[in-house]
């Protein structure tokens, strides 16, 4: 599904290297988790894959089903099947959540040469999906993320994911700012989307989220590289011992 | 006090070819304006009130020729809104293209028919509200209009009108010079919506005086012509009674010089006055919103919401004032002026002012200039929305608060679709 090879990235405006040779391969239907200390480059990896400005790729590649993502505009990456659930979902005053969702869904359908959804069809689908995520009609009407609580913002991200049906989902610290119940609800939303054709990359600080979204593989990132990969037991090891031993081992 | 020579010279040049006409009350009001004007002269760019907008082309003897504008396949503004349509060509009423001015509960009389007839309500409005609006700041172009305008309508509403009255302006001459003067009176409990649209002339000097009696409601929605080369100075003077409502919204797309003045007096208790504007300009575009909101009555609410989208060297100006007089307790005044600068060449000049003589009031004002929010843009793109569509969405979102001031949803939608069309035609 997603093949990242030797990815080197620096900040566009200063000579600071953030990613220093990331290699990561995610198969169809797999769930991978990335953990790592603050500043290790986890969020940068997600932004670079989604196409945010401000970064320069100095080397390497990232293929989504064989297609080079790094050469595409952000909207084309989305149409190709990539989705990033933001750590800090953006508030957009003046744009209704429903308008936003429908514009996004139809723009992607159009880019893929599919029929756009009519207002009626769209409404039916969005209402059903919103209900399972406990998103009420009021949240759909309000401007995108404006006045949403932390939990509402994250549920709104998952709703977007459910509506857009991407192939490759990146969840950037989706658990941050959530209480246990909210985290469970979000995790259930994610688990409902798991299937053989859809892959996930879950970026998190804590093992806790991985109790709910069970990963097939866990990677530890430090100083812009993946320093260790393993199964779910690796997350437990971090939870119990912290990163110090792993970092020392890698040096 | 000796008048600055330049002001007198400007007046002599500008009024040289104009003559005062009419007898009876209207003739008297015009002659009074001529006398007032002689004591003021016309503005120059040295006037503090014209600091950000050079009035030279508005006061010149003849208008700068302006190319006629072809709107292409865009439908005229408010095309789908059922209204009594009154058409002006180059600033002159054209009965042949107009509807029969008949609307239940509304009297519609052309200025030319008013001369010599004692329309008692109009003599208390024509030139009267304009005169009141001359203090504390002089507005000589409005007085010039009162003195010399022969085109316009006197409209009196005595009940709730079933549909709007719509002034449609058409421009056929590259050197047309329009002086339009309308007077509107809403009697107790009446309600009327007035629409204005289209390119009026190469140069437009307009005055509208609106008296909203106690408990009456007036809605004014204006879509100024998309013609690029016109120069316009418009003034709306309004006096709002107890429990009455006055709302005015203006869409301005293009125009090399537009100065829209709104002078509002809330004279009764519990009155409401909202003035709003959305302006979009690309290139040679200078747009000035000048507002003077006076609170006299108690517990009145006023809002000024002005948004401008500027690119390729376009200039936006906002001069907005809230004056709360002594005794105007429990005033709720709000003023916001914002610009979205789509490049580094455009500029926005804002002068928000508050002057408050009552001690129990709530007044807020804010003014900002900014670029499109890159984070929001990336968020939309990351969901698959193409960059240009995302930018348009964000621009419309920026303008939403101003458009939100229009109560009628069909009219608001018309304005929104015109803005969408404009954004599609102007890449940024």
From TrEMBL, chain A:
<feature type="domain" description="ABC transporter">
    <location>
        <begin position="2"/>
        <end position="248"/>
    </location>
</feature>
<keyword id="KW-0547">Nucleotide-binding</keyword>
<dbReference type="InterPro" id="IPR017871">
    <property type="entry name" value="ABC_transporter-like_CS"/>
</dbReference>
<dbReference type="InterPro" id="IPR003439">
    <property type="entry name" value="ABC_transporter-like_ATP-bd"/>
</dbReference>
<comment type="similarity">
    <text>Belongs to the ABC transporter superfamily. Ycf16 family.</text>
</comment>
<dbReference type="Pfam" id="PF00005">
    <property type="entry name" value="ABC_tran"/>
</dbReference>
<dbReference type="InterPro" id="IPR003593">
    <property type="entry name" value="AAA+_ATPase"/>
</dbReference>
<dbReference type="InterPro" id="IPR010230">
    <property type="entry name" value="FeS-cluster_ATPase_SufC"/>
</dbReference>
<keyword id="KW-0067">ATP-binding</keyword>
<protein>
    <submittedName>
        <fullName>Fe-S cluster assembly ATPase SufC</fullName>
    </submittedName>
</protein>
<dbReference type="InterPro" id="IPR027417">
    <property type="entry name" value="P-loop_NTPase"/>
</dbReference>
TrEMBL record, chain B:
<dbReference type="InterPro" id="IPR037284">
    <property type="entry name" value="SUF_FeS_clus_asmbl_SufBD_sf"/>
</dbReference>
<dbReference type="Pfam" id="PF01458">
    <property type="entry name" value="SUFBD_core"/>
</dbReference>
<dbReference type="InterPro" id="IPR000825">
    <property type="entry name" value="SUF_FeS_clus_asmbl_SufBD_core"/>
</dbReference>
<dbReference type="InterPro" id="IPR055346">
    <property type="entry name" value="Fe-S_cluster_assembly_SufBD"/>
</dbReference>
<protein>
    <submittedName>
        <fullName>SufD family Fe-S cluster assembly protein</fullName>
    </submittedName>
</protein>
<feature type="domain" description="SUF system FeS cluster assembly SufBD core">
    <location>
        <begin position="178"/>
        <end position="398"/>
    </location>
</feature>
């Amino acid at each position: 599904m997603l093949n990242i090879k030797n990815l080197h990235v620096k900040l566009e405006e200063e000579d600071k290297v953030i990613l220093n040779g990331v290699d990561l391969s995610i198969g169809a239907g797999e769930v991978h988790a990335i953990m790592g200390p603050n500043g290790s480059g986890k969020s940068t990896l997600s932004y670079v894959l989604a196409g945010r400005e401000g970064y320069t790729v100095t080397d390497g590649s990232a293929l989504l089903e064989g297609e080079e993502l790094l050469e595409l505009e952000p909207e084309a990456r989305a149409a190709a099947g990539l989705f990033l659930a933001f750590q800090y979902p953006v508030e957009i005053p003046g744009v209704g959540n429903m308008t936003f969702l429908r514009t996004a869904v139809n723009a992607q359908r159009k880019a893929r040469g599919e029929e756009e959804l009519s207002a009626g069809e769209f409404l039916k689908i969005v209402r059903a999906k919103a209900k399972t995520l406990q998103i009420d009609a009021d949240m759909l009407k309000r401007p995108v993320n404006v006045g949403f609580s932390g939990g509402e913002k994250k549920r709104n991200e998952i709703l977007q994911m459910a509506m857009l049906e991407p192939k490759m989902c990146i969840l950037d610290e989706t658990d941050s700012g959530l209480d246990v119940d909210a985290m469970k609800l979000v995790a259930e939303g994610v688990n409902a989307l798991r299937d053989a054709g859809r892959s996930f990359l879950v970026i998190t600080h804590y093992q806790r989220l991985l109790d709910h979204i069970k990963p097939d593989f866990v990677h530890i990132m430090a100083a812009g590289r993946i320093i260790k990969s393993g199964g779910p037991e690796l997350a437990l090891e971090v939870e119990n011992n912290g990163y110090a031993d792993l970092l020392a081992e890698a040096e | 006090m000796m008048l600055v020579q330049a002001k007198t010279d400007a007046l002599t040049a500008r009024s040289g070819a104009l003559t005062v006409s009419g007898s009876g009350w209207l003739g008297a009001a015009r002659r009074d304006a001529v006398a007032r004007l002689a004591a003021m002269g016309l503005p120059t760019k040295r006037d503090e009130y014209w600091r950000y907008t050079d009035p030279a082309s508005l006061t010149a003897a003849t208008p700068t020729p302006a190319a006629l504008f072809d709107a292409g396949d865009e439908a005229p503004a408010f095309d789908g809104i059922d209204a009594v349509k009154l058409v002006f060509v180059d600033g002159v009423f054209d009965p042949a293209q107009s509807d029969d001015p008949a609307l239940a509960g509304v009297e519609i009389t052309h200025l030319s028919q008013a001369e010599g007839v004692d329309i008692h309500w109009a003599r208390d409005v024509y030139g009267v509200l304009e005169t009141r609006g001359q203090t504390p700041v002089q507005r000589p172009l409005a007085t010039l209009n009162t003195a010399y305008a022969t085109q316009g309508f006197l409209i009196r509403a005595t009940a709730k009108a079933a549909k709007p009255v719509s002034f449609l302006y058409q421009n056929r001459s590259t050197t047309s010079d329009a002086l339009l003067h309308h007077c509107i009176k809403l009697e107790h409990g009446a309600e009327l919506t007035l629409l204005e649209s289209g390119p009026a002339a190469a140069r437009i000097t307009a005055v509208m005086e609106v008296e909203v009696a106690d408990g009456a409601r007036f809605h004014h929605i204006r879509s100024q012509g998309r013609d690029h080369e016109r120069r316009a100075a418009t003034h709306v003077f309004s006096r709002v009674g107890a429990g009455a409502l006055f709302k005015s919204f203006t869409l301005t797309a293009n125009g090399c010089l537009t100065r829209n003045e709104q002078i509002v007096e809330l004279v009764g208790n519990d009155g409401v006055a909202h003035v709003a504007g959305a302006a979009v300009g690309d290139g040679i575009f200078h747009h000035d919103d000048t507002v003077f909101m006076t609170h006299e009555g108690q517990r009145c609410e006023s809002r000024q919401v002005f948004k401008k989208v500027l690119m390729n060297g376009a200039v936006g100006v906002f001069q907005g004032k809230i004056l709360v007089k002594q005794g105007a307790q429990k005033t709720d005044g709000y003023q916001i002026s914002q610009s979205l600068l789509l490049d580094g060449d455009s500029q926005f000049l804002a002068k928000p002012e508050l002057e408050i003589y009552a001690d129990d009031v709530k007044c807020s004002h804010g003014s900002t200039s900014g670029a499109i929010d890159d984070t929001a843009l990336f968020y939309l793109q990351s969901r698959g929305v193409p960059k240009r569509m995302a930018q348009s969405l964000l621009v419309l979102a920026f303008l939403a608060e101003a458009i939100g001031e229009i109560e009628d949803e069909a009219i608001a939608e018309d304005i929104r679709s015109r803005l969408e069309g404009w954004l599609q035609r102007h890449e940024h």
